[in-house]
Amino acid sequence: FKSYSRVGTSHLRFISILRDPIDRLRSLFLSEKRQGSLDLIGFNITKECLKDVLSCEAYLNITFDMWARLQVSRAEECSHLNSISNIWPDCGTDGIFGGIYSLQLEMYLRYFQGDQISLVRFEAATEDRRQCMDNVGDWLGFTGDANLTKGPVISDQPVKGDFMLENDDSWLSTEVQGLLEAFYQPYASDLFSIIKRENVEFIDVVERNELF
Protein backbone atom coordinates (compact mmCIF):
# COMPACT_ATOMS: atom_id res chain seq x y z
CA PHE A 1 0.00 0.00 0.00
CA LYS A 2 2.79 2.43 0.88
CA SER A 3 4.37 1.84 -2.55
CA TYR A 4 1.57 3.77 -4.25
CA SER A 5 0.73 7.45 -4.19
CA ARG A 6 -2.72 8.45 -2.97
CA VAL A 7 -3.79 9.00 -6.60
CA GLY A 8 -2.26 5.71 -7.74
CA THR A 9 -3.95 3.81 -4.94
CA SER A 10 -7.36 5.04 -6.05
CA HIS A 11 -6.87 3.31 -9.42
CA LEU A 12 -6.20 -0.12 -7.93
CA ARG A 13 -8.84 -2.83 -8.34
CA PHE A 14 -9.06 -6.05 -6.34
CA ILE A 15 -10.87 -9.22 -7.40
CA SER A 16 -11.28 -12.10 -4.97
CA ILE A 17 -12.99 -15.44 -5.63
CA LEU A 18 -14.87 -16.60 -2.54
CA ARG A 19 -15.84 -20.21 -2.08
CA ASP A 20 -18.32 -21.66 0.38
CA PRO A 21 -16.10 -21.80 3.49
CA ILE A 22 -16.99 -25.41 4.32
CA ASP A 23 -16.22 -26.59 0.78
CA ARG A 24 -13.01 -24.58 0.92
CA LEU A 25 -12.03 -26.22 4.22
CA ARG A 26 -12.57 -29.73 2.89
CA SER A 27 -10.61 -28.97 -0.27
CA LEU A 28 -7.76 -27.66 1.88
CA PHE A 29 -7.88 -30.82 4.00
CA LEU A 30 -7.74 -33.12 0.97
CA SER A 31 -4.90 -31.17 -0.64
CA GLU A 32 -2.73 -30.82 2.46
CA LYS A 33 -3.31 -34.40 3.60
CA ARG A 34 -2.27 -35.65 0.17
CA GLN A 35 0.90 -33.53 0.33
CA GLY A 36 1.71 -34.58 3.89
CA SER A 37 1.43 -31.01 5.17
CA LEU A 38 -1.81 -31.27 7.17
CA ASP A 39 -2.06 -29.17 10.34
CA LEU A 40 -1.71 -31.81 13.07
CA ILE A 41 -2.04 -29.66 16.19
CA GLY A 42 -4.26 -31.54 18.63
CA PHE A 43 -3.55 -34.99 17.19
CA ASN A 44 -1.52 -37.55 19.09
CA ILE A 45 1.05 -38.23 16.38
CA THR A 46 4.38 -39.78 17.37
CA LYS A 47 7.74 -38.31 16.38
CA GLU A 48 8.42 -41.46 14.38
CA CYS A 49 5.21 -40.94 12.42
CA LEU A 50 6.06 -37.30 11.74
CA LYS A 51 9.26 -38.38 9.98
CA ASP A 52 7.18 -39.81 7.12
CA VAL A 53 3.49 -39.05 7.58
CA LEU A 54 2.53 -40.39 4.15
CA SER A 55 3.61 -43.85 5.29
CA CYS A 56 2.12 -43.55 8.77
CA GLU A 57 -1.19 -45.26 9.45
CA ALA A 58 -2.16 -42.82 12.21
CA TYR A 59 -1.83 -39.92 9.75
CA LEU A 60 -3.55 -41.70 6.87
CA ASN A 61 -6.50 -42.57 9.11
CA ILE A 62 -7.28 -38.94 9.92
CA THR A 63 -10.68 -38.07 8.47
CA PHE A 64 -12.12 -34.68 7.62
CA ASP A 65 -14.64 -35.08 10.43
CA MET A 66 -11.86 -35.58 12.98
CA TRP A 67 -9.79 -32.70 11.63
CA ALA A 68 -12.66 -30.23 11.24
CA ARG A 69 -13.92 -30.92 14.76
CA LEU A 70 -10.49 -30.02 16.15
CA GLN A 71 -10.34 -26.90 13.98
CA VAL A 72 -13.64 -25.63 15.41
CA SER A 73 -12.60 -26.48 18.97
CA ARG A 74 -9.28 -24.67 18.65
CA ALA A 75 -10.88 -21.60 17.08
CA GLU A 76 -13.52 -21.32 19.79
CA GLU A 77 -10.98 -21.88 22.55
CA CYS A 78 -8.67 -19.19 21.19
CA SER A 79 -11.51 -16.71 20.84
CA HIS A 80 -13.01 -17.31 24.28
CA LEU A 81 -9.85 -17.67 26.37
CA ASN A 82 -8.13 -14.64 24.88
CA SER A 83 -11.22 -12.44 24.48
CA ILE A 84 -10.23 -11.89 20.85
CA SER A 85 -12.69 -9.97 18.69
CA ASN A 86 -10.77 -10.38 15.42
CA ILE A 87 -10.40 -14.14 15.39
CA TRP A 88 -8.79 -13.64 11.97
CA PRO A 89 -5.85 -13.01 11.94
CA ASP A 90 -5.23 -13.02 15.72
CA CYS A 91 -6.00 -16.73 16.18
CA GLY A 92 -4.81 -17.80 12.73
CA THR A 93 -5.08 -17.20 9.00
CA ASP A 94 -5.12 -20.73 7.58
CA GLY A 95 -7.36 -23.74 8.09
CA ILE A 96 -10.77 -22.82 9.44
CA PHE A 97 -9.73 -19.16 9.75
CA GLY A 98 -9.15 -18.80 6.00
CA GLY A 99 -12.92 -18.94 5.41
CA ILE A 100 -13.68 -15.92 7.61
CA TYR A 101 -14.07 -13.59 4.64
CA SER A 102 -15.79 -10.70 6.44
CA LEU A 103 -12.76 -9.88 8.60
CA GLN A 104 -10.43 -10.17 5.60
CA LEU A 105 -12.61 -7.77 3.61
CA GLU A 106 -12.70 -5.30 6.49
CA MET A 107 -8.90 -5.18 6.47
CA TYR A 108 -8.88 -4.11 2.81
CA LEU A 109 -11.55 -1.52 3.51
CA ARG A 110 -9.22 0.21 5.96
CA TYR A 111 -7.14 1.31 2.99
CA PHE A 112 -9.38 1.14 -0.09
CA GLN A 113 -12.88 2.13 -1.09
CA GLY A 114 -15.59 -0.49 -1.45
CA ASP A 115 -16.06 0.22 -5.15
CA GLN A 116 -12.42 -0.80 -5.75
CA ILE A 117 -13.16 -4.34 -4.59
CA SER A 118 -15.04 -7.08 -6.39
CA LEU A 119 -15.99 -10.45 -4.92
CA VAL A 120 -16.69 -13.35 -7.27
CA ARG A 121 -18.70 -16.37 -6.19
CA PHE A 122 -16.59 -19.51 -6.70
CA GLU A 123 -19.46 -21.46 -8.23
CA ALA A 124 -20.01 -18.71 -10.79
CA ALA A 125 -16.32 -18.79 -11.74
CA THR A 126 -16.36 -22.57 -12.23
CA GLU A 127 -19.84 -23.41 -13.50
CA ASP A 128 -20.37 -20.57 -15.98
CA ARG A 129 -16.93 -19.06 -16.43
CA ARG A 130 -17.70 -17.34 -19.72
CA GLN A 131 -20.57 -15.30 -18.30
CA CYS A 132 -18.69 -14.69 -15.06
CA MET A 133 -15.65 -13.35 -16.90
CA ASP A 134 -17.90 -11.16 -19.04
CA ASN A 135 -19.25 -9.66 -15.82
CA VAL A 136 -15.72 -9.17 -14.46
CA GLY A 137 -14.74 -7.45 -17.70
CA ASP A 138 -17.77 -5.16 -17.48
CA TRP A 139 -16.82 -4.18 -13.93
CA LEU A 140 -13.24 -3.42 -15.01
CA GLY A 141 -14.48 -1.42 -17.98
CA PHE A 142 -12.98 -3.72 -20.60
CA THR A 143 -14.54 -3.51 -24.04
CA GLY A 144 -13.87 -4.76 -27.55
CA ASP A 145 -10.57 -6.62 -27.95
CA ALA A 146 -10.00 -6.51 -24.21
CA ASN A 147 -12.92 -8.86 -23.61
CA LEU A 148 -11.76 -11.47 -21.09
CA THR A 149 -13.67 -14.33 -22.71
CA LYS A 150 -11.68 -14.26 -25.96
CA GLY A 151 -9.08 -16.92 -26.63
CA PRO A 152 -8.80 -20.59 -25.64
CA VAL A 153 -8.38 -20.05 -21.89
CA ILE A 154 -12.08 -19.78 -21.06
CA SER A 155 -14.15 -22.93 -21.38
CA ASP A 156 -17.89 -23.36 -21.07
CA GLN A 157 -17.38 -26.68 -19.30
CA PRO A 158 -17.53 -26.80 -15.48
CA VAL A 159 -14.25 -27.46 -13.74
CA LYS A 160 -13.91 -31.05 -12.55
CA GLY A 161 -11.88 -32.47 -9.70
CA ASP A 162 -11.92 -33.28 -6.00
CA PHE A 163 -12.78 -29.74 -5.06
CA MET A 164 -16.13 -29.77 -6.88
CA LEU A 165 -17.62 -32.27 -4.37
CA GLU A 166 -20.12 -33.39 -6.99
CA ASN A 167 -22.71 -35.95 -5.83
CA ASP A 168 -20.77 -36.54 -2.63
CA ASP A 169 -23.13 -36.38 0.33
CA SER A 170 -20.99 -38.44 2.71
CA TRP A 171 -17.97 -36.19 2.94
CA LEU A 172 -18.74 -35.12 6.53
CA SER A 173 -21.21 -36.03 9.26
CA THR A 174 -24.35 -34.02 9.89
CA GLU A 175 -23.01 -33.16 13.34
CA VAL A 176 -19.75 -31.68 12.07
CA GLN A 177 -21.50 -29.89 9.23
CA GLY A 178 -23.73 -28.28 11.85
CA LEU A 179 -20.68 -27.24 13.88
CA LEU A 180 -19.08 -25.63 10.84
CA GLU A 181 -22.27 -23.90 9.73
CA ALA A 182 -22.78 -22.48 13.23
CA PHE A 183 -19.17 -21.27 13.30
CA TYR A 184 -19.25 -19.56 9.90
CA GLN A 185 -22.83 -18.21 9.90
CA PRO A 186 -22.17 -14.96 11.83
CA TYR A 187 -19.25 -14.11 9.55
CA ALA A 188 -21.29 -14.87 6.42
CA SER A 189 -24.02 -12.51 7.63
CA ASP A 190 -21.42 -9.84 8.36
CA LEU A 191 -19.94 -10.31 4.88
CA PHE A 192 -23.19 -9.54 3.07
CA SER A 193 -23.85 -6.59 5.36
CA ILE A 194 -20.41 -5.18 4.51
CA ILE A 195 -20.92 -5.76 0.77
CA LYS A 196 -24.16 -3.81 0.85
CA ARG A 197 -22.98 -1.05 3.20
CA GLU A 198 -19.63 -0.39 1.52
CA ASN A 199 -20.83 -0.79 -2.08
CA VAL A 200 -18.48 -3.71 -2.74
CA GLU A 201 -19.22 -5.34 -6.09
CA PHE A 202 -20.50 -8.91 -5.90
CA ILE A 203 -20.04 -10.61 -9.26
CA ASP A 204 -22.14 -13.62 -10.14
CA VAL A 205 -23.83 -14.97 -13.26
CA VAL A 206 -27.04 -13.23 -12.18
CA GLU A 207 -27.75 -9.56 -11.86
CA ARG A 208 -26.50 -7.89 -8.68
CA ASN A 209 -29.93 -6.52 -7.81
CA GLU A 210 -31.28 -10.08 -7.69
CA LEU A 211 -29.00 -10.74 -4.71
CA PHE A 212 -29.77 -7.62 -2.67
TrEMBL record:
Keywords: Transferase. InterPro entries: NST/OST (IPR037359), P-loop_NTPase (IPR027417). The keyword Transferase applies. One of its GO terms (molecular function) is sulfotransferase activity. PANTHER family: BIFUNCTIONAL HEPARAN SULFATE N-DEACETYLASE_N-SULFOTRANSFERASE, HEPARAN SULFATE SULFOTRANSFERASE. This is Protein-tyrosine sulfotransferase.
